[in-house]
Amino acid sequence: MNKYLSYVIFALSAALGLFFIYKGVNKHFLSECKVYGPDSTLPLEYRNVISALCQSGFTKIIGFLEVFSGILLLVPRTRLAGGILLMPVILTIFLLHAFLDNRPHELVETGIPLAVTLLVILYHYPKWKSILGKN
After folding, report:
1. Which of 44, 57, 49, 64 is nearest to 96 (CA)?
2. Mean per-residue pLDDT, 47-53
3. What domain range includes position 59?
4. What stretches pass through the bilayer (predicted)?
5. 42: which residues sit within 8 A by CB, 6+ positions away?
6. How far apart are CA 64 and CA 90, in angstroms?
C-alpha cells in the first residue's frame, strides 16, 4: 500500500510542479497582466486587487515562486521544500478567489492544487516532524 501511495504522490507532485512551472512562466513571458474593463462581470474589489498586483510587479514575484517551487516539486529530494514554499502562494490565491471573486468554478480550480499541495506536505509528515524536533 505504501508503495502505491508513493507512486500517487510522485504523480501528483509531478503534475503540480509542471502546472506551476507553466503558470509562473506564463506570468513572466506568455501573457500580459489582466486589465478588466468597466463592462466586466467580476466584482470591483477583485478587479482592483488584480490590477494593483499586476501594476506593482507583485505577480512577477509570485510567478518566480511558482516556477521555483514547481522545480522543487519535480525533484524527489526537494519535494517537501517545494510544497512548503508553494503552500502560502496557493493558499493566498485560493483565499483571494474565496473572498473577492464570485465565480464558484475558480474555487474548484484553485482548491484542487491547494488540496494536492496539502497531500504532498502531509505525505512527508515524518520528514518535517524530524526537522521540527518532534519524536
Report:
1. 49
2. 88
3. 2-33+40-131
4. 6-25, 81-100, 107-125
5. 36, 101, 102, 103
6. 13
